[in-house]
Automatic annotation (TrEMBL):
A GO term for molecular function: transaminase activity
Top-level lineage group: Bacteria
CDD domains: AAT_like, WHTH_GntR
The family this protein is said to belong to: In the C-terminal section; belongs to the class-I pyridoxal-phosphate-dependent aminotransferase family.
Organism annotation: Agromyces agglutinans
Protein name in the entry: Aminotransferase class I/II-fold pyridoxal phosphate-dependent enzyme
Residue span(s) of domain HTH gntR-type: 19-87
Length: 493
């Protein structure tokens, strides 16, 4: 089937395969951009118009546009529609998930995991930097321990025991460039242990079967960048489905993996906490097989429903790498994260750090230690918790009023939630509608480790398509506006 879109203001001849119209439209657009028939800056027809011209569903056209925006071929801007990007992505761009090009400019960004940067306690931080500089002896300004500044490691051990129930002494703590930095070190350490002849000898301790040392389980939904870090270290990922009790850690026994990366307090991004029985099963698996649990406690401090869900680590401290970050309670700009590393893995992690460098800025560490000691860090957490609790309530209200067929989930904790879409509405269409309004936001599928698993996993009770809404992200004065754009995008889909 050949079609000419002159009617819709775009003069382009493409041949569509009648048996896979959507797929061939996508291929044809990519091809036309690649060979220059669709020049940079060219405006594409509205989804409704093109769908009518081609005789396919509007949702399908919107999905194609959203995917091509994600791949960097197209741009979508507030009130202006969809355009061919100025510098299209190279032909070999990978296309596993709809991912938005980092250079695309959006007015609002509500992706999951982003904190409210405007809440950073500037004066408390300034005072902490001043105190750190005034109190720090000169020799602390030379080369220090690659594990991090002793004062901060001691402060973190106390803070984590008090607020998260973590069992740690200062010697167990390592300070890294955010959680990402820690994960990279741990991933490379695990990979090295699985290599015969490498230090540590994990190959002999692998749970069972050949190659288990390189197989690491991840949650079926999570941060793509964290999966990339694991893969870059040479590890093979095995996705775990998620249900109403959290990740299916009960499957670990059968999966022949040497480690598992989890967000037990508040699964990212679905928001489901790991249930008590699953935690027990996880601890039993780790103890029995010698497997490691990498616990990403990225927003454990932000719980709003009065149910305190402590860290998993105390259930199996010798088998758990516990990790936290200052990116949520303070700011990602600090680039500070920490790990509590079990004795068995510590030398391997240190060896990786020695091999790859990357000790963390000591002055920032000293300032964070001073902030914790002064109670400023606790105050920041309490203030943010109050602020985010208010946002959560307001968002629930707004959805109940404006989108009665949608449902909010995963909102008992953390800084993002799931907006389960009204029946019949697809994620890609809402994401495209949001892009057209200058809002960057992701559908749940964008976080999936594997397309098929994403479709199978039952999230919450409905398993419906959902939007991941970062309620923490907008500055306070723009929160209402941001949520109104979310509602408008769903409404228009
Ligand atoms: C699931 C999850 N883990 C950890 C982090 C923190 O990462 P980092 O400390 O590298 O900023 C984030 C931040 O977005 C996150 O969403």
């Amino acid at each position: 089937m050949a079609t000419n879109w002159a009617d819709s203001g775009l003069d382009l001849h493409v041949a569509l395969d009648p048996h896979r119209k959507t797929g061939s439209l996508e291929d044809a657009l990519r091809e036309a951009i690649r060979d220059g028939r669709l020049a940079p800056g060219t405006r594409l027809p509205a989804t409704r118009t093109l769908a009518a011209d081609l005789g396919i569903a509007r949702n399908s056209v919107a999905e194609v546009y959203a995917r091509l925006v994600g791949e960097g071929w197209l741009d979508a801007r507030v009130g202006a529609g969809t355009w061919v990007r100025e510098r299209p992505a190279p032909a070999f761009a990978p296309v596993p998930q709809a991912r938005v090009d980092r250079s695309t400019r959006f007015d609002l960004d509500l992706r999951g995991g982003l904190p409210d940067a405007s809440a950073f306690p500037r004066s408390a931080w300034l005072a902490a930097v001043g105190r750190a500089l005034a109190e720090t002896p000169t020799d602390a300004l030379g080369y220090g321990s690659p594990d991090g500044v002793e004062r901060l490691r001691a402060a973190l051990a106390e803070y984590l025991a008090r607020t998260r129930g973590v069992q740690a002494s200062a010697d167990d703590v390592i300070v890294t460039h955010g959680f990402g930095g820690l994960l990279g070190l741990v991933a490379r350490a695990l990979a090295a242990r699985s290599t015969p002849g490498a230090s540590g000898g994990q190959a002999e301790r692998a749970p069972s079967g050949q190659g288990a040392g390189r197989r690491v389980a991840v949650e079926a939904y999570g941060h793509v960048s964290h999966r990339e870090v694991l893969e870059a270290a040479g590890l093979e990922l095995v996705p775990l489905p998620i249900d109403a009790d959290g990740a299916r850690v009960d499957l670990l026994e059968r999966l022949d993996v040497s480690a598992v990366l989890l967000t037990p307090a508040h699964q990212f991004p679905t928001g489901v906490p790991l249930s008590r029985s699953r935690r027990e099963a996880l601890a039993a698996w780790a103890m029995r097989t010698g497997g490691f649990v990498i616990e990403d406690d990225y927003d454990g401090e932000f719980r709003f429903d009065g149910r305190s869900i402590g860290a998993f680590q105390p259930l199996a401290p010798e088998r758990t790498v516990y990790s936290g970050t200052a990116s949520k309670a303070l700011s990602p700009a600090l680039g500070l994260g920490w790990g509590v590393v079990p004795a068995e893995l510590r030398d391997d992690v240190r060896a990786e750090r020695a091999r790859t460098g990357g000790a963390t800025d000591a002055l920032a560490q000293l300032a964070l230690a001073a902030l914790i000691a002064s109670g400023g860090y606790d105050r920041s957490v309490r203030e943010l918790r109050r602020r985010y609790r208010g946002r959560r309530e307001r968002f629930e209200e707004l959805v109940a009023e404006r989108l009665p067929d949608a449902r909010v989930g995963g909102i008992a904790a953390g800084i993002q939630c799931l907006l389960e879409l009204p029946p019949g509405v697809t994620e890609a269409v809402v994401v495209a509608e949001a892009s057209a309004r200058g809002l960057r936001i992701g559908g749940l599928a964008e976080y999936a480790a594997e397309a098929d698993l994403a479709a199978d996993a039952a999230i919450g009770s409905s398993g419906r398509p959902a939007l991941v809404v970062g309620i923490g992200a907008p500055p306070q004065h723009r929160f209402e506006q941001a949520m109104a754009v979310v509602v408008a995008a769903v409404d228009a889909a």
